[in-house]
Amino acid sequence: MIRPFTLAALALISALVLAACGSSGSSATSSSYTPPASSTASSSPRPASVVGTKTSSLGTFLVDAKGRALYLWDADHGSMSTCSGACAQAWPPLTATGTPKASGQVKSSLLGTTTRSDGSREVTYAGHPLYYFAGDSAPGQTSGQGSDGFGSPWWVVSPAGKAIQN
Q1: Domain ranges of the chain
Q2: Model-level pTM?
Q3: Which of 4, 38, 117, 165 is deepest in the core (most CB within 10 A)?
Q4: What is the DSSP string of 21-67?
């Protein structure tokens, strides 16, 4: 009886490993971080995104409802996002189908949306499209701060809508 059980266990483990290694297309980055469903353009976004604040050694910066840091990109001029493809894989946009909601020190009057090239609506703050960083693996983590990924720096965003450049 041990042998059939062992074979069944090995078959189950093999199936799980194969499922975990399944291809979802090529990617320029690998990370243990999985962006929330509302942040990826290809998934079904929630009706509204909540933007709040967190305070750390960087100061007070914008986060999503789960406490994940939100960034702006210096390459974006105006509210139109210029991050797509591999860029959007490393820096997933915060998207929503409804009106974004303010929490904490976030000013409702500075929240808005812009339409991305794929037709999804990206949340903006003070005119800046907002992104996550795929390298952040925990709420409040700011590993992308000051990164020069894709040719321009990325910064967490203050409640005033400015880049925090610490």
Answers
A1: 34-164
A2: 0.73
A3: 38
A4: T------S---S----GGG-TTS---S--EEEEEEETTEEEEEETT-
